[in-house]
Amino acid sequence: MTNETQRMPGLELWGGVECTIVRLGDEYRDQTVETGHAGRPADIDLIAGLGIRTVRYPILWEAIAPERPDACDWRWTDERLGMLRARGVAVIGGLLHHGSGPRYTSLLDPDFPEKLADFAARAAERYPWIEMWTPVNEPLTTARFSGLYGHWYPHRSDYPAFLRALANECAGTLAAMRAIRARIPGAKLLQTEDLGKTFSTAPLRYQAAHENDRRWLSLDLLCGRVGKAHPFHDILVGAGVGLAELERFESGEGRPDLLGINHYLTSERFLDHRTELYPGHEPGGNGRDTYVDAEAVRVKRLEPDTGIGPRLREAWERYGIPLAVTEVHHGCHRDEQLRWFAEVWDTAQQVRRDGVDLRAVTLWSMFGNVDWRFLLTQRRGFYDVGVFDARSGTPRPTIIAAAARAFAKGEAFDHPVLDSPGWWRRPPRLYAWNGRCRPLGSGGRKLLVTGATGTLGNAFARICGERALPFCLTARDELDICDERSIAAAIADHRPWAVINAAGFVRVADAERERDACMAANADGPEALARACAAAGIPFVTFSSDLVFDGRIGRPYREDDPVSPACVYGVSKAEAERRVLAAMPDALVLRTSAFFGPWDRYNFAWYVLSRLASGEAVTACAHAEVSPTYVPDLCHAALDLLIDGEKGIWHLANPGRVSWFDFARAIAAGAGFDPELVEPLDAPSERTLTALASARGAMLRPFEDALAEYLVLVRDSPELAPFAEAAE
User: Fold this and answer.
1) Who contacts 95 (Cβ-Cβ below 8 Å, separation ≥6)?
2) 600 vs 99, 597, 614, 652, CA distance in Å?
3) Burial class of residue 155 (count of CB atoms within 10 Å of its CB; 0-12, 13-18, 19+)
4) Using CB atoms within 10 A of its CB, is residue 343 exposed (0-12), middle (13-18) or buried (19+)?
5) Residue 318 exposed, middle or buried by CB count within 10 Å (0-12, 13-18, 19+)
6) Angle at the Cα of 574 (from 573 to 577), degrees rounded to 5?
7) How far apart are CA 13 and CA 402, in angstroms?
8) Is the peptide bond before 562 cis (omega within 30 degrees of 0)?
9) Cα–Cα distance between 322 and 315 in angstroms, integer?
């Protein structure tokens, strides 16, 4: 370690709010609006409360001056930036975030640089206390998506448009920083870019080399490195970027003070001419060769040279400019989000020890994002959770927030899910042609899951396996939930970090004549487990039902509605809720409804399909509405809440309300059967509605989306193939 490295201050934790304003045709999408951040001033306190002292924050051109350059509305930014400043949080001001500017300009506008500089001057005059600026976020990425791939405005798909857009963005950055520094002499440029690398098979090395030269182009321009010998000099000139335009960069005046490296698991690509090895992948090409553009992280031989560590070292060796990781986000389940954050943080510490001047790691999407997995081109309303889960309207801290508080203080952070590597380190990620790989072991702290013979227990076992969460699934002969000594022995033997109770009496109709057995399994057992977990100091999760309600309220039930069971089964679940929370107030009690799933035959959806496949009609109740719940979604959400450390009563059901009759008809239609084969039962005088809603946040996707996935599995699964054949 050099003396210079020894003198470096500690690694800082920064924050960032997903703030993209992107134009799609004549419409704009604003992520601060779609995530709700725009209307929640209290979010600033949540950021500051994590111990974050620097934040990337929007001062976006399209939002402030949408109609005319001289008609600026600063009210929102005045409020938010003032709050950050009052709380001692430094701001990195972003002026254009994946955008093309207001309607009076575009990335292909010859006057774009001057117009951006004019706005930058106004922003600097307004906020002279901001020292660090990012005039254009990820210029190369934005130019590719807007000029080469046609996703965003101006929706061009040609190389000259891509290069013109990129040259304009870089010229705009240079002009904007001149304007800012004329008003704030010490202002610094933090230039961000999504930095990946392209790998390839031997016949495609020329294409990989081209893309690897291209990935540096925005930074090379700003650093004055695009001279006549640069691989892209003649390409730029040939695309119409004039020599005079290139000469403006040669002085290196645009050299960033800090390089912001954004890196995602799919940032690195592998080009493979062997298209037959990738069933389901649509081949592309460059006009000369046809190939598949695959994810490098799924190619085993590339493991030593993929990931954020090698990319940070490359950037440092190429430019010698201090670095920051300016976006860390992973749209996945909570354990994978935590593993990614922890891996990036640990990697950052390691590259600093190796002598790289890396200043900070930035938690991105503090309040999540909407539809980014579709590059914002589809309005699906798909919310990816960030550091906070904002789906309820009041952001809820996730486990990432707990890790952030620790890292911001320079402290270590531990959680049982970190005992296993992320999916990008596990063998199942690999493309099939990689060859056989030794599977990972099952070491690590375990979850204890009861209910080995039931739908829910087996679903948890399957999903814990997929998510690399070590577990033990117990049957009654190993753990009798009604026997305190059996519970104590199982906890002592397995030493779990949490217990999930998926056991219970599930036959609703039989409960009326088997009341004692139902109460024992559904109330006595969960209470005994809760007492044991409270004594052991470990989290406990158990499941309740929509049938704790009588269905007469006339709307979907929320968590705070009083229980009113109308059957023995409902009474047993309501009693379990009361007893469990009395024994262990920190327990997590999950109310759910009407299971259906692809992995067993004991659910209504399977019943409907099996009858229809046999040519028989189906009768279903048309007067009782429920919230059918897709078991895989339920298990994933339950695990996320457990990992987040949540407690109390939550409603977990796929949003939507449907009668059993309409549910059956939707199944029939989706599977290719005649919906008229489903007939309603005679309706009694009174209708019931036990559908569930949540005041704490809708954790599951809409019912229609879940049913669509279920039906795909019905068609594709060998076990369910007879249904597909019957439908055909």
Assistant:
1) 59, 60, 61, 116, 119, 120, 123, 133, 134, 135, 136, 176
2) 47, 7, 18, 20
3) middle
4) buried
5) middle
6) 85
7) 13
8) no
9) 9
Task: For the chain, count helices (H), then strands (E).
Answer: 25, 31
Question: From CA 711, how far away is CA 724, in angstroms rounded?
Answer: 9
Supply the pTM of this predicted model: 0.94
> Euclidean distance between the first and final Cα of the chain, in Å?
68
Residue type, 106: S
Tokens representing residue 164 in the block: 């013109």
Q: CA 513, CA 535: separation in Å to the nearest integer?
A: 35
Reported as a single tens digit per residue, the pLDDT across 569-584 is 999 999 999 999 999 9
What secondary structure does DSSP assign to 583-645, as a single string?
H-TT-EEEEE--EE-SS-S-SHHHHHHHHHHTT--EEE-SSEEE--EEHHHHHHHHHHHHHHT
pLDDT surpasses 90 at 5: no
pLDDT in the model for residue 6: 43
Q: Of 239-243, 277-281, 684-688, which range is least confident?
A: 684-688
Backbone φ, ψ for residue 388 (5° rounding):
-115, 145
Six token digits for residue 574 = 């309501």
Per residue in 339-385, pLDDT (tens digit) is: 999 999 999 999 999 999 999 999 999 999 999 999 999 999 999 99
Q: What is the Cα 315 distance to its own chain's centre?
A: 27
Look up tokens 């024994």; give the residue.
Answer: 583
- Of residues 602, 596, 650, 651, the one with CA closest to residue 628: 596
Q: What is the pLDDT of residues 527-542, one digit of tens each?
A: 999 999 999 999 999 9
What is the percent of the chain where pLDDT is above 90?
93
3-state secondary structure of 703: helix
Give catalytic status of residue 710 as yes or no.
no
Q: Which two tokens stand for residue 290?
A: 């046809």
Cα(37)–Cα(31) distance, integer angstroms: 8
* Residue from 57, 319, 557, 569 carrying the catalytic annotation: 569
- Ramachandran sector of residue 197 (left: φ over 0; alpha: ψ -120 to 50; beta: rest): beta
> Could you give the CA distance from residue 678 to residue 663 in angstroms, rounded to a whole number?
10
> pLDDT, tens digit, for every residue of 589-606?
999 999 999 998 889 999
pLDDT at residue 4, as a whole number = 41
Q: Which of 513, 518, 583 is nearest to 547 (CA)?
A: 518
Amino acid identity, position 14: W
Q: Domains of the chain by range and CATH?
A: 3-266+303-411 (3.20.20.80), 442-727 (3.40.50.720)
Which DSSP helix (H) or strand (E) runs through 711?
helix 703-716
- Tell me the helix, strand and coil percentages in the chain, rounded to 5: 45, 15, 40
Bridge partners (DSSP) of residue 96 are 136
List the structure tokens of 268.
């690195």
Structure tokens at 595: 């299971």
